[in-house]
């Protein structure tokens, strides 16, 4: 039991670090997509309800 407990904690820490890294990478990726390609589409979607 004392040998498995730290191993489980190490696995949990690695798991959370991977999740945080994926979230950060996804956030930068989506921000870059919105700024480069989908910016006009986003503004058009925002302006659409005002036209209706």
UniProtKB/TrEMBL annotation:
One of its GO terms (cellular component) is proton-transporting ATP synthase complex. It is a single-pass membrane protein. The keyword Oxidoreductase does not apply. Pfam families: ATP-synt_8. Its main location: mitochondrion. The chain crosses the membrane at residues 12-31. Belongs to the ATPase protein 8 family. This is ATP synthase complex subunit 8. It comes from Analcellicampa xanthosoma. The gene is ATP8.
């Amino acid at each position: 039991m004392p040998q498995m407990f730290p191993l489980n904690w190490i696995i949990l820490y690695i798991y959370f670090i991977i999740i945080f890294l994926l979230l950060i990478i996804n956030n930068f990726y989506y921000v870059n997509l919105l700024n480069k390609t989908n910016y006009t589409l986003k503004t058009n979607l925002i302006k659409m309800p005002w036209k209706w």
